Amino acid sequence: MNSTFQLGQISVIVINDFFEKILTVDSNIIIIRWSPIIIMVKKLLLLLLLLLLLLLLLLSFLYYYYEIICFCFEFISLKKS
């Protein structure tokens, strides 16, 4: 995803790709390419956050269903005895 913005008479273009960071000034245009390490770290952090949220959601559902399952087993065991 590329983004372009103006700084007075200078255009700044930020290119998100897998090249090393290059700062080029050519006829009032600045091109910034992000390094792959920054891109990988951002993606890994987002993935980690997503996995953490999914784990939290799973644990909350398991806790809720654990209470229901325990209640059902207690009810069945009380009926048998």
TrEMBL record:
Record field: transmembrane: 44-66
Record bears the keyword Transmembrane: yes
Keywords for the protein's UniProt record, in alphabetical order: Membrane, Transmembrane, Transmembrane helix
Superkingdom of the source species: Bacteria
Name the record gives this protein: Uncharacterized protein
Organism: Amycolatopsis alkalitolerans
